[in-house]
Predict the structure.
Amino acid sequence: MSLGETYNKEIKKVLAKELGIKNVMMIPKLEKIVINTGTGDAIKNKEAGSKMAQDLAAITGQRPKVTKARVSIAGFNVRSGMNVGMVVTLRGKRMYDFFEKLVKIVLPRLRDFRGVPVKSFDQSGNYTIGIAEHTVFPEIDLAKVDKPRGLEITFVTSTKDNKQAKKLLELLGMPFEKEDNGNKS
């Protein structure tokens, strides 16, 4: 059973019960996952930009959208309209498949992984994590990578409450770090 089916059949009921939600439409859900990366050196090297686009397409299963600079910043040698990053927005089945791959395969491959930080929620119930190297994804061939790049992954939820969003992500399988109750050893 896919993660989307599991959410609809089991997780929704658990969320409604634990959070005391009577209206089915108020049950928190994962709306989309946004993956983005900056391509700073691709300004000078066009080949690096196309290589990162191929890698991001392999990781997510869909072609990334190139983001352009809105304003010129002389200190960074950036002119308005230059390509400065790439973004992919996942919804539906691809979103749940990516979430499952991230939680079960990618995060455990990270060095010294003890869980994702709890403090990365914004004020709107969305959760963002950063991955320092995109090479931890199994689709990436290390022999063909010129330089590892960072990714930012944002999980957008339908709730505005961080506690409800955290409960949703926990039930979906997000491995949050254990909270240390001030015990230093």
Remarks:
- The longest strand covers residues 30-38.
- Strands lie at 30-38, 65-68, 83-90, 127-131, 151-157.
- The chain is about 35% helix and 20% strand.
- The mean pLDDT is 84.
